[in-house]
Amino acid sequence: MKLICHACKYEVAETRDLALPLTGAMFVSRDPAHGVPAPWSPVVTWEYMFCPMCQRRPFLDPAPDGTIIMNTDSGIIAVTQKGIVKDEDGDGFIDLGAGVAPKPSKTATKVAKVNK
Ligand SMILES: [Zn+2]
């Protein structure tokens, strides 16, 4: 699933195991075969993630609970404390009350994972 810049629609990076808090390690090269680098250092947090093309933040600033909404090649998603919530019906709205998986136990690895 690729992150698409909210501001300029540039294809920023391939995502990997998105979760909160976001880190640069969750965004890798969108085209490693052609040497395109990952956009950010693996250790940075969302405050330091800017689009390589337009220099704006490529996703919406976090909601008070930390939820971050971003545009991807699979549609709009919300990265929440409980996992990823997709815009299932494609109407541009995300129902954060529905489809949220329960908080994972310590033994479970990932729930509601929609990464390719
Ligand atoms: Zn951009």
What topology emerges from the helices and strands here?
Blueprint: E1 2-4, E2 11-15, E3 27-28, E4 68-72, E5 75-80, E6 83-86
Residues 5, 7-8, 10, 51, 53-54, 56, 58 line the site of zinc ion (ZN).
Let me know the average pLDDT. Answer: 88
Bound ions, cofactors and other small molecules, one mention each: zinc ion
Largest beta-sheet details: 6 strands, antiparallel
Strands, count: 6
Task: Explain this structure.
The protein is mostly beta strands and 116 residues long. It has one domain. Helices cover 0% and strands 22% of the residues. The protein is built from no helices and 6 strands. It has strands spanning 2-4, 11-15, 27-28, 68-72, 75-80, 83-86. Strand 5 and strand 6 form a beta hairpin. The protein is globular, with a radius of gyration of 14 Å. The mean pLDDT is 88. The site of zinc ion has 9 residues, from loops.
Keywords for this entry:
binds zinc ion; 6 strands
In short:
The protein has one domain. It is 0% helix and 22% strand. The structure holds zinc ion.
